Amino acid sequence: MMFVDLNCDLGEGAGHDAELMPLITSANIACGAHAGDPATMRATVALAQRHGVAIGAHPGFADRAHFGRRELALPPAEVGTLVRQQIEALRAFAPVRHVKPHGALYNLAARDRIVAEAVVEAVLAVDPKLVLFALAGSELARVGRARRLRVADEVFADRTYRADGSLTPRTQRGALIAKPELAVAQVLQMVRYRTVRATDGTEVPISADTICLHGDGAHAVEFAQRLNVELRNAGISLRSFGA
To answer: 182-231: per-residue pLDDT in tens?
Structure first.
């Protein structure tokens, strides 16, 4: 039987957390920078524990006005401090199993080795046993493995890919997959065959340890339910990475 992890960004105020939590296996919880606060972290952690969902920190740039989706030119030391402090903030409420950067920080670390090194060093400084969720094939994944972190290669259900294996930037047309049936088909291809069809039509090799499900969409719950059903029908079970 095949297994895959299904993760979701939660604690960000989207209003679907209670409905999504039973449908996923890993929760990336906002740590108070791009979204969230102590009360929200506490409540989201409790919800994850109730449903046996792995708890992860979701650190991002401290830029609430842009929801952490604007790249900030910070020195590596400042990036490291930002990530470390956010992981520690969540650890005040429960043990943390994994770390997944958010938004612009995630995308920047995926392509910029210096930023990737700052993120990895911060994770190691907190706990070298933490799992790092990183875009499959990215600089962050490579640096994490080079420093002997456990890395989960992450793929996206509702984002399109370019021929080099990177995500199509949100600023470009066609970056998001709006039709659920197309997103499900992409997930099944990535998990079963370890390839993804890029926007230029080429088949790109990809490793899929964990699937990102965005929790802030209007139809996030319905899509999560459908994805659960389609994965089971394909003989693919859900479990948290490394469980």
So the answer is: 999 999 999 999 999 999 999 999 999 999 988 777 788 999 999 999 99
Question: What pLDDT is stored for residue 178 in this prediction?
Answer: 87
Per-residue b or e along 98-116, where b marks 16 or more CB atoms closer than 10 Å to that residue's CB = bbbbbbbbbbbbbebeebb
**Cα dihedral value 238, 241, 242, 243, nearest 10:** -40
The one-letter amino acid code at 84 reads R
Parse the chain into domains and list their residue ranges. 2-238
How far apart CA 11 and CA 211 sit, in angstroms, is 18
Note the pLDDT of residue 238.
96
What pTM does this model have?
0.95
Low-confidence stretches of the chain (pLDDT < 70) are: none
Please name the fold of domain 2-238: TIM Barrel (3.20.20)
